[in-house]
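Agenda item 2: norvaline complex prediction
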Amino acid sequence: MNYHFLDLNNYDVADLERIIENSIQLKAKKKVSNVLEGKFLGLIFEKSSTRTRVSFEVAMTQLGGKASFLSVNDLQLGRGEPIEDTAIVLSSMVDGLVLRTLDHETQIKFSENSTVPVINGLSNKSHPCQLLADLLTFYEEKGSIKGRKVTWCGDFNNVCFSYAQAAELFDFDLWVACPEEYLPKEQLNFKNVTFTQSISEAVKNSDLISTDVWVSMGDENESQERIRVFKDYQVNESVLDQAKSEVLFLHCLPAVKGQEISPTLLDDPRSKVWKQAENRLHAQKGLLLELLG
Ligand code: CP
Ligand code: NVA
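Presented output:
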């Protein structure tokens, strides 16, 4: 198994399934263990976070370890200390690091100089930790995702990229409904991924519909244009009605109600978004056990 967790496809599907299985077991036990006693996790975040930060901090505490949040503005990194030097020094002290970065290259450079596991807690390219929670939620609700039809509506962003990697690894069919101008320029060769501009085609017979904001962190200067281009890609109750009657709806959160989702969608019975958010904690525990245990 790869040392770092920068992208889902650094791992074999068997490793990922074991992480999800461990997450399920840890969730069922509902009790604190001391399996990571004496272990320390550092979190270096260049962007805001609610779920990722808190789930890692709580997960470490519940497994008997400790975590510390290191805002880039408080580190010497923010004043120009090289990434390589920061990685060498911090990894000589801590047992693992979670990075949330503007640029995915920062994570690669950091991991190449780190002697402890580096976990991608979101970059401009991908969000693999989110997929662990999404796959866990689907598994709990519907069983195996193999052979299922999964739909992504909206921006082909970091979360969608990790869905595309998951489609190949877990062998499900991902349909991405996204305006042509926002499709990935060089990455159209994903296995098991179909691109379309038709939401109806993408959601027909779907087992799982997922979406995310139209304006991700870092895209704020394109807000007006994105809101205009994506306006026909909203997921609402009538979009869910076109999928299988037992379709599941997920959203990584935070959501902008009235943009990518209708104002009432999170509380629709087909939405398992609150469970998905809680599952970030359980999935982080499964991952930490694998990497630091
Ligand atoms: N879904 C997710 O990563 O949320 P945060 O930005 O709050 O961490
Ligand atoms: N695509 C979003 C995900 C937030 C969890 C962003 O990058 O802002």
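Discussion summary: The CA atoms of residues 181 and 229 lie 9 Å apart.
Owner for follow-up: CH.
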